[in-house]
Amino acid sequence: MNEKYQVDAMEAKMLPILQSDASLSISELAEATNSSPATCWRRLKALEDSGVIGPPVRIVDPARVGRGTDVFCQVRMKSQDAAAREALKRAVDQEPTIIEVYSMSGDWDYLLHLVVRDIADLEAILTRRLLDLDCVANTSTTFALRRIKHTTQIPI
């Protein structure tokens, strides 16, 4: 679904609050937006039904659970046919350390964001999941020295 949803003024108040703290009760959200709980509930349901917002989640700090190394891996494909794209998709879907995948314009076909324990962990993932794929021509990997900014909040 790629249709643009028209966010109204009330929803524009709700979304930044929800992105900061999805654990708020409907009553707390109503108070924060100066509206009634019934109105907030209806708007929240509409935002969920339209796909603007997904389920509430808790964000885990990767470093605190031993996955403090952010890695960005560019992938160049040998072929862009449907079978090659599906093979790559299956491989990245099976690897939980790959947390984001983007189809790219330019010299590289895909950009992968991984959170790994260390270089040995990365090497195992690359050799087990990516480099053995017939459809992958080559990869280029860079490491983040540290996270400067990381947010899940989308500007409204």
Q: How much strand? A: 15-25%
The mean pLDDT is: 95
As for the CATH topology of the largest domain, it is Alpha-Beta Plaits
Distance from N terminus to C terminus (CA atoms, Å) equals: 19 Å
Rg is 20 Å
Q: Any idea what the CATH architecture of the largest domain is? A: 2-Layer Sandwich
CATH top level of the largest domain?
Alpha Beta
Tell me, what's the shape? elongated
Query: How many domains, as an integer?
Result: 2
Name of the CATH superfamily of the largest domain: Lrp/AsnC effector binding domain/regulation of amino acid metabolism (RAM) domain
Derived from helix and strand composition plus strand pairing, the structural class reads: alpha+beta
Secondary structure blueprint with pairings:
Elements: H1 9-20, H2 26-33, H3 37-50, E1 69-77, H4 82-93, E2 98-103, E3 110-116, H5 119-130, E4 136-143
Antiparallel strand pairs: 1-3, 1-4, 2-3
Helix pairs in contact: 2-3
Question: Could you explain how this protein is built, in words?
Answer:
Helix content is 37%, strand content 19%. It has 156 residues and is α+β, with helices and mostly antiparallel strands. The protein has two domains: 9-50, Winged helix-like DNA-binding domain superfamily/Winged helix DNA-binding domain (Arc Repressor Mutant, subunit A), CATH 1.10.10.10; 62-143, Alpha-Beta Plaits, CATH 3.30.70. The protein has a four-stranded antiparallel sheet with strand order 2-3-1-4. A hairpin with a 6-residue loop joins strand 2 (98-103) and strand 3. The mean pLDDT is 95.
Summarize it.
The chain has 156 residues and is an alpha+beta fold.
